[in-house]
Write a structure and sequence with these properties.
Shape: globular
Low-confidence stretches: 1-24, 312-351, 369-424, 426-438, 440-456
Radius of gyration: 30 Å
Distance between the termini: 89 Å
InterPro entries: Ferritin-like (IPR012347), Ferritin-like_SF (IPR009078)
Protein name: Ferritin-like domain-containing protein
Order of helices and strands: EHEHHHEHHHEEEEEEEHHEE
Structural class: alpha+beta
Organism: Pterulicium gracile
Keywords: Signal
Mean pLDDT: 75
Helix content: 25-40%
Strand content: 5-15%
């Protein structure tokens, strides 16, 4: 198969330009066509999502969701929608220049996630992270450097969208130095439930969902659900992947605890064994994957930019952690009952959050050597200086806009800004900086002149004048 491609065909402005362009030809591979078709379907999905969401909600819906300015948020969403539409137009033009056709029979259903502005913002955050991961993963299937560069020019814009959606969801604008690449099958585990009516020719991984009802934080013990479990998770492991890590963190599925020091997106799979998954799409094993991935956001660091975009309205703030033995606060009439409290109708399942020490012990124990009798080797003991002891954990109490206090989309739980536990400020180890020492005279400088014994002493200052400053200490 031959094709003719404008060197800059993926630039929207040049697509509309009637000026002659320079062309070159080469044989296109089937994998490159598949990557561009798949990327175009994702761009169609993103365009449809923003188009439907913007059309559905009014100014009051954005302010009720806690945003300081509805116009500011809508402006960003409209810009992102315009970008996604331009990406799709360019990808379809490129496919036709290959002699191939784009897939245009897909339909996209977002009814379940366009229930309110807060849910829409949470889904948009997933959508942009999925886009970034899809372009990264698809790069290994593109051999032509011009096509690779063109796809990369879209990837960088998707990453800018990702940053803005992080901010709008009260997360860290740039939470990590690296993102996480995913294969097309892994992407469909996240985006597939929205897509119907078309055959992409790509087998999809089983979807995975977190069933916890609370905000995710370091120390949270996660629970999952997936049609791939077939009612039995015995012997399975959860695999947590962070951007930039060489491999995932494998943990037994019944001890899948969010590690400390995590901030931002985490990709999570469930596998049939404890062998870590490598963080590259070329070499990552697939045979032991039972379900996933899903994207979970662990927002532990708040930034001032998110506070500027939000007001004190929206969801009520989470209460401060209570001391042991403090009685639970009473629930106001009509307010949702605290987590785990029996309301007489149903009992909400609570999220178990354990200390960072316990979380670290579980993570270390998952790969710790065993003793000769098969038991786990004892953990080392020792005195920990008080200054190095971890801060006491906080148990988040979600009170989001949803009935159960959470926003869950394709397995990812999102909590509003006011429900994200604020980590305690680190104490200033040194207190206020010490005052600068008095200047030391230059060794080579001349000593101060000695007043002439016969000289007339200086006149005394007039009454009421300020006293002369005291001489510096010797």
């Amino acid at each position: 198969m031959r094709y003719t491609l404008a060197l800059l065909t993926l630039t929207t402005g040049l697509l509309a330009n009637a000026a002659p362009l320079r062309f070159y030809g080469r044989a296109v591979t089937e994998s490159e066509i598949l990557v561009f078709q798949f990327a175009d379907v994702l761009e169609q999905l993103e365009t449809a999502f923003y188009e439907q969401g913007i059309a559905k909600f009014q100014d009051a819906d954005f302010t009720n969701a806690g945003f300081a300015s509805s116009q500011l948020v809508q402006q960003q969403l409209l810009t992102i929608e315009k970008d996604e539409r331009a990406h799709s137009v360019a990808l379809q033009a490129a496919l036709r220049s290959f002699g191939a056709e784009p897939v245009t029979t897909c339909t996209f259903n977002f009814d379940a996630v366009l229930t309110d502005v807060a849910t829409m913002a949470a889904v948009a955050r997933i959508v942009e992270n999925v886009g970034v991961s899809a372009y990264m993963g698809g790069a290994t299937l593109i051999t032509d450097p011009v096509l690779l560069t063109s796809a990369a020019s879209i990837l960088t814009v998707e990453a800018r969208h990702q940053t803005m959606l992080n901010v709008l969801n009260a997360g860290t604008a740039i939470p990590a130095a690296f993102d996480i690449p995913l294969t097309p099958s892994e992407i469909l585990a996240l985006a597939g439930p929205f897509i119907s009516g078309c055959d992409l020719g790509i087998p999809a991984n089983q979807p995975l969902a977190v069933t916890n009802t609370g905000a995710l934080a370091p120390g949270t013990s996660l629970t999952f659900d997936s049609p791939g479990f077939n009612g039995n998770t015995e012997g399975m492991f959860c695999q947590m992947m962070l951007g930039g890590a060489a491999e995932s963190i494998p943990l037994p599925i019944d001890a899948c605890v969010v590690p400390a020091e995590i901030n931002g997106p985490v990709a999570i799979w469930v596998t049939s064994d404890g062998q870590p998954l490598v963080n590259n799409v070329r070499d990552r094993a697939t045979t032991q994957v039972v379900a996933g991935p899903l994207f979970a956001f662990v927002d532990t660091k708040q930034e001032l930019i998110s506070q500027v975009l939000r007001t004190t309205g929206g969801a009520p703030p989470a209460p401060a952690p209570e001391a042991p033995g403090t009685p639970a606060p009473e629930t106001a009439p009509g307010a949702p009952a605290p987590e785990g409290q029996d309301t007489g109708e149903s009992t909400v399942i609570t999220t178990q959050t354990i200390s960072t020490d316990a979380a670290s012990s579980i993570i270390e124990g998952a790969s710790a050597p065993t003793g000769t009798d098969g038991s786990a080797a004892p953990a080392p003991t020792g005195n920990v200086p008080a200054s190095d002891a971890p801060a006491p954990p906080t148990t988040p109490t979600p009170k989001g806009p949803s009935a159960d206090g959470r926003i869950e989309v394709l397995g990812m739980s999102e909590m509003p800004l006011s429900d994200v536990p604020t980590p305690p400020a680190a104490p200033d180890a040194g207190g206020a900086p010490p005052a600068a020492p008095p200047a030391t005279p230059d060794a080579g400088a001349a000593p101060p002149a000695t007043p002439d014994a016969g000289a007339t002493p200086p006149a005394a200052p007039p009454a009421g004048a300020p006293a002369a400053p005291a001489a510096p200490p010797a």
